[in-house]
Amino acid sequence: MRSLKSSKPSAPLALALGLVALAALPAAGLAATTRKVEVGQGNQDRFVDDVSGNSTTTINVGDTVNWVWDSGFHSTTSGSCPGGNCAPDGNWDSGVKSAPASFSRQFDAAGTFPYHCVVHGSMMQGTVIVQGAAIAPAANFTFAPAGAVMGTPVQFTDTSTGAPSGWTWDFGDPGSGAANASVLQNPSHTFATAGHYTVSLTATNAGGSNTTTKSVAVSAGGATPCIVDDKTLCLNGGRFQVRTHWTKTDGSSGDGHAVALTGDSGYFWFFDSANIEAVTKVLNGCGLNDAYWVFAAGLTNVRVDLDVLDTKTGLPYSKENPQGTPFAPIQDTGAFPASCP
Questions:
Q1: pTM of the prediction?
Q2: Where along the chain do its domains lie?
Q3: Which of these CATH numbers, 1.20.1730.10, 2.60.40.420, 1.10.510.10, 3.40.50.170, describes 11-131?
């Protein structure tokens, strides 16, 4: 029988190259593996994959196939046999070998790769199916009701794409203890107090993970009237209640004294009525982003807690200026999102 020559590396060299390739990681970020296919198993003219038990080998990008000769004279030659007429396609050719021998090849691209034995032609064929690298999902979710109320469960629904197989939720509510996290696909969570909560979802599959966050506004669940007094501004027709609280380095503290300026603005003084400490404005941005905005500026470096309450929804908004820090301007155009009737 005439032996077939190949331009590919010899078996020992090809095997060595295959083993070196095992150190590499495929695009999916998973460790590459080697799949064994027995050539001439049981003294028969056939290829048998050790996993599938037949002549089809299914692997991932970056994996290696190692053909091991059990008996007879055979080759593993890339190419199909349409109508029984086998034609090499040049992808690989082990050359004719006999036991004991082996031949390896790493597959770096997805696709379906038929092969055959040049000695036995269409009687002895096999197929390598290389699956594309897994792609990390794109995390996303919805929640209902949109107008969440403290003490009432909020239902979260996973809408991630890319077929995630795992979910990790953080509801941004550490005060809820163990209930602040979930690994369910579609969990619910009850927020005990009103406020803005940053909820995150990390969706995971074999290709990796992806995280998204959304802000959930939780109201107190009802309207509370704003009453003007020495410590309280009532802005935008009385809808927004604004108060401040100051703390000095010696630990002394108190509430700022409120002075109205316009229908949507006012200022506070702390230690002397002639000394303005903080100016606040709540703007109607409904025509631009369906929200009310909070702007504030200060002329102080003591700690200041600015508290704004939407008395229509019971939703609070708070900002703190740290002790010993010049008051940083506040320009929050999303302070009260989706708050416009």
A1: 0.45
A2: 11-131, 141-219, 233-337
A3: 2.60.40.420
